[in-house]
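Long-time lurker. I teach an intro course on protein structure, and each term I like to show students one example going from raw sequence to a predicted 3D structure in token notation. This year I'd like something fresh instead of my usual example. Would anyone be willing to generate the tokens for the chain below so I can use it in lecture? Attribution to the forum is fine with me.
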Amino acid sequence: MLDDYTKRGMVLRTTLRLAAEKGWDGLTLLEIAEDAGVTLADIYKDFGSKTGILTAFIDEVDRAMLKQAGKPDLTAPARDRLFEVIMTRLEILTPYKGALKAIYCDLRCCAPGRSSGRLLCATLNSQEWILTAAGVPPTGPRGCVRLAGMTRLYACVMRTWLNDDSDDMARTMAVLDRELSRGERWLKRLDAVVSDLRRIACRLAPRRRRAAGAEQPGAG
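-- Reply from a regular --
Happy to contribute to a lecture. Here you go:
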């Protein structure tokens, strides 16, 4: 996924390798630049910061996921489509698991800072692309609920995946399947509540119109 012939690719590869070896928190931009054979000015131009390198990697993962996922089969159940897209993403991430584990551990221990907002935006953007790649619209009121649910689901699956050393990712797939089932049930309950509220609103609408008419001057 990451090339060895552009400065961008070399910086991304070097950063992930050094993160796996040394951890993320203590890794400096100077170390990355020297190991990748680029200047700090190059890193500033292409990434802006260490966090910028991470968000650039997330962008590369999004692009690779969308390329491999292709066009969604809308005849298949939504949960099956989501399962396939998320597993595709995890397969893309597998070569970088050691680095991601170190990064996740260090970021979890750090106090929230200015970089947290940038990472959060990149993460939410990725969740939107996961839903879109699966043919599940992330827009509108229901889309907002889906996006929130997908963000929670993906975080849960990632925690499992980072500690799943099996070749077949059996634990990860089991958690993903469970969380998709839970999300599916939750959305059905939400739809039922929304339908009930709509029926109540429809029954109340004529009464409101009559009450409004009665309050008009000269009414009756």
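Some talking points for your students: The longest helix spans residues 170-214. DSSP finds nine helices and no strands in the chain.
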